[in-house]
Amino acid sequence: xxxxxxxxxxxxxxKELTRADVRIVDGRITEIATQLAAQPGERVIDAxxxxxxxxxxxxxxxxxxxxxxxxxxxxxxxxxAALGGYTAVLAMPNTEPTLDSxxxxxxxxxxxxxxxxxxxxxxxxxxxxxxxxxxxxxKMASLGVTVFTDDGTGVQDAGVMRRAMTYAAQLGVTLxxxxxxxxxxxxxxxxxxxxxxxxxxxxxxALAEEIMVSRDIDLxxxxxxxxxxxHLSTARSLELVRAAQSEGLPVTAEIAPxxxxxxxxxxxxFDPEFKVHPPLRTAAxxxxxxxxxxxxxxxxxxxxxxxxxxxxxxxxxxEAPPGMLGLEHAASLTLxxxxxxxxxxxFDVLSRGPAAIARLRASDTRVRHSAHGGDMVxxxxxxxxxxxxxxxxxxxxxxxxxxxxxxxxxxxxxxxRARATIVRGVVVQESGELC
Length: 435
Ligand code: NCD
Description:
The strands form 4 sheets. Strands 1, 2, 3, 4, 5, 16, 17, 18 and 19 form a 9-stranded mixed sheet that branches. A 5-stranded parallel sheet has the order 9-10-13-14-15. The chain has a 3-stranded parallel sheet with strand order 6-7-8. The chain has 435 residues and is an alpha/beta fold. The chain is built from 12 helices and 19 strands. Helix 4 (158-171) crosses helix 7, helix 7 runs parallel beside helix 8 (235-246) and helix 11 (330-338) crosses helix 12. N-carbamoyl-L-aspartate is lined by residues 62, 94, 151-152, 178, 276-277, 304, 306, 322-323. The site of N-carbamoyl-L-aspartate (NCD) has 11 residues, from loops.
């Protein structure tokens, strides 16, 4: 029997915070009470000044395995997640080869079994993510895959997307779209606008994203397929999703920390760390995303953790690959946007919202994982983060658990950090040290 006591924190329930201690025995919460005394031999975690809530769930992690293990692998990506307070991640399928078959999905699921956090896998919608021929989604769904995406690119052909959605609706799975119309994005390297013109860099217009969001909402209305929009970056994209949700359509959306923290002016440095798809947008978009987050209308914050080796990323801006690291700092950046006065929203966007979208909750029986995004009640699987909202630290790209170094936040002082991460009752990270 392994027993763990989390003492002195504020327990974040679904509706309120309660000052309480939490006992975990053999992977489950067994007691929650105002004051619990430690038993002989029991490990104690001091949670004073901390929020004790359901572990974070990342809907958008590039683990790079197989194929690009020099940038990241399942183990190192999971370590970065554990340090960031995550108890589960959803691995994206844009690996080499693509996760578009039972064999490839099984490979990553197997590698995930020995990782510090739980690794769920998103399968590809089309073979090779080429946007032409549907991948065997039913077979991958039989492994417990509930989300399919061609992330890295959106499915460009509306006819293929319609077929995929009709098929997915019957299977009872969710499709997740990387919304960028490639013809409109036209190979651009940053947001299209006055800044890109001044810098002489080619732009990706906001409409490249919004037109695909709009198209896919129409296809949801036609097919009834649940649709999740990945890394939305513009004010208008969020308005389109909000309108679709109020119409009752089964759509959800995530936003990424870089899109609500940094704007296109960062590209004035020509530093490739600021290159990402979709690109960093205008200051007005950043303000709109922050407002949406604070007011609780965003379903999830997702990292789009995209590791690249220094050799590949350290290129001229227009030649460097897009993408930046996310897992180790996303919660701090989210806290900054949401505000310390809104812990329930903080846990909704980092844990309960994403767990619902990835179907990792206790009520989601298809998934072969323990439950995440719980209510913090007795009987819950113990996937928990102890989060200190007041501690500060300075980001150091050379002190990351990720194999890669491509963070745009190097040298920034951030507030709020996971003091401990507990996965199925096991402490995998405490005070910044992996256990
Ligand atoms: C992602 C990556 O590197 O895998 N990069 C990024 O800029 N977000 C893929 C992608 O979504 O383009």
